[in-house]
TrEMBL record:
Pfam family, one: PhyH
Keyword Transferase attached: no
Lineage: Bacteria, Bacillati, Cyanobacteriota, Cyanophyceae, Oscillatoriophycideae
Keywords: Dioxygenase, Oxidoreductase
SUPFAM superfamilies: Clavaminate synthase-like
Name of the protein: Phytanoyl-CoA dioxygenase family protein
UniProt-recorded Gene Ontology molecular function terms: 2-oxoglutarate-dependent dioxygenase activity; iron ion binding
InterPro entries: Phytyl_CoA_dOase-like
Keyword Oxidoreductase: yes
Length: 328
């Protein structure tokens, strides 16, 4: 999972950097092999339509696997790794919870506004900014030469003055803090960890040939009195081979959450190109489904059951034959 050099960085050094600078960066924290295996667990080109599963959604030029704890064992192991929990344990003074997580792919064009992530919501709407401590973890899953994460130096110290605003304008940052903007152009596997009260964004870009893959998750100190803060964590129980009270609290077992999954998607958030691709898939499936439904409507139920029995027996024999070949 982690490169041989990352474990050499002490948790104290990471936490000290977070307290002093508001962020910590480590280039190539993850091995390339681990990232490649993680991405193999995700099919960004498969969009589920009437499929009873967890999968990828599209929001314009970005594709999201929001519920990666339910889909990717590699993502689960990383998000719940001892190193991540140790950082949280040393940084926070009270109960902390994983309040959102996602793997996403950004393509072609993006213009994210300057913002902080200390948000409270009512439904899908931002209701206010909170003062709870929180950490944002970003792992680059590809080399990032464009659209890098950007952070305004020391902004975690003054961002509270703008808690009445959802975003800060490009013009405002350029006028007052341009010299303080830090660009994190880093290699695949790099880790960026920052205070959620820091002003940040991904640098705008436009390039039809460029794609960036990122794993992002946020951990907030919710204490014992905060209720409803965060998105639901859907977890595949098959992945849980390291369960203990600390992980259960971290994943929010028994903790109420009110926020809907991000992003808010529907047919309307697909690009024209994605819509055309989807219609092509649906056309082939429609023809196949129509032929199947026509056959089912014409054949008596008893004949259909008999055909199913024959097909099941044939498939069973094929599987057994393959097993015998493997044994030999």
């Amino acid at each position: 999972m982690y490169t041989s050099t990352f474990p050499n960085v002490t948790t104290d050094k990471i936490v000290d950097s977070l307290h002093q600078k508001g962020f910590f960066v480590f280039e190539e924290a993850l091995t390339e092999q681990y990232i490649d295996e993680l991405l193999q667990e995700i099919n960004f080109n498969q969009i589920l339509v009437n499929a009873n599963d967890v999968g990828v959604v599209i929001a314009k030029h970005q594709k999201f696997l929001t519920h990666c704890l339910a889909k990717s064992k590699k993502a689960y192991d990383l998000i719940t790794s001892p190193q991540i929990l140790e950082i949280c344990e040393n940084y926070f003074q009270d109960r902390y919870v994983l309040i959102n997580h996602r793997i996403y792919q950004t393509q072609k064009i993006s213009h994210m506004p300057w913002h902080t992530d200390n948000n409270r919501q009512v439904g899908r709407q931002l209701s206010s900014k909170h003062d709870m401590p929180g950490l944002l973890f970003l792992f680059y899953l590809s080399d990032v030469t464009k659209n890098p994460f950007q952070l305004v130096k020391d902004s975690h110290l003054w961002s509270h003055k703008h808690n009445h605003e959802i975003y800060l304008s490009d013009a405002f940052i350029e006028k007052k803090y341009q010299k303080d903007v830090i660009n994190f152009t880093l290699k695949k596997g790099s880790l960026i960890l920052c205070n959620i009260h820091a002003v940040h964004r991904a640098e705008p870009f436009k390039d039809n040939t460029y794609t960036r893959n990122t794993l992002l998750f946020q951990v907030d100190q919710v204490g014992s009195n905060v209720i409803g803060h965060g998105e639901k964590n859907l977890v595949n129980t098959e992945f849980i081979d390291n369960i203990n009270p600390k992980i259960m609290n971290y994943l929010g077992f028994g903790y109420k959450t009110d926020y809907p999954a991000f992003p808010n998607t529907s047919i309307s958030t697909l690009t024209l190109q994605d819509l055309i691709s989807l219609h092509r898939q649906l056309l082939a499936l429609t023809l196949k489904s129509s032929a199947k439904n026509l056959a089912l409507s014409l054949l008596p139920g008893e004949i259909i059951i008999q055909i199913k029995r024959i097909l099941w027996n044939w498939k069973s024999k094929q599987i057994n034959t393959e097993k015998i070949k493997d044994i030999k």
